[in-house]
Design goal:
The protein is mostly helical. It has one domain. A two-stranded antiparallel ribbon has the order 1-2.
Length: 143
């Protein structure tokens, strides 16, 4: 029986852009930067212009600290710094594993059909709601 789901495995198209290789390498570079964060942090006291201008945290404040804590295995501390950034960094780790397997096996997961209009708007709304909830957490936690 032939699979007819929303995704398929396919080799990289000739002269195709290798997204897995590009984004996987960028995620690895970000992980290395986050891991080395404690060594270069003293040279950069604050990098959030929104916080410097308003005194309030932006939705991503604490993201660098969260990624650094995650890179050093401190999951709870990463979650306290910024839950959204911690979840994103953990997701990037999963993506690196997928990208490595995809590049080595020359098989990529590709969508067989695009999302519908309603699903696209639902995803946009859900993303905005998650970012707003994360920002509310940062404001209430006094980050």
């Amino acid at each position: 029986m032939k699979y007819s789901g929303p995704f398929r495995l396919a080799p990289l198209a000739p002269r195709g852009l290798d997204h897995e290789l590009i984004w996987g390498a960028l995620c690895l570079a970000a992980f290395a930067t986050a891991w080395s964060f404690p060594y270069w942090k003293p040279f950069f006291p604050s990098s959030c212009l929104f916080r410097l201008a308003t005194g309030c945290p932006c939705p991503l404040c604490g993201g660098t600290h969260a990624a650094a804590a995650l890179a050093h295995g401190a999951w709870g501390e990463a979650w306290r710094f910024n839950p959204l950034a911690a979840a994103g960094a953990a997701g990037a780790g999963v993506y690196v594993a997928y990208a490595a397997m995809a590049v080595l096996a020359n098989r990529r997961v590709r969508a067989t059909r695009p999302l519908g209009r309603a699903a696209g708007w639902a995803m946009r709304f859900a993303t905005g709601a998650v970012v707003a909830a994360n920002w509310l957490y940062l404001l209430l936690a006094g980050r």
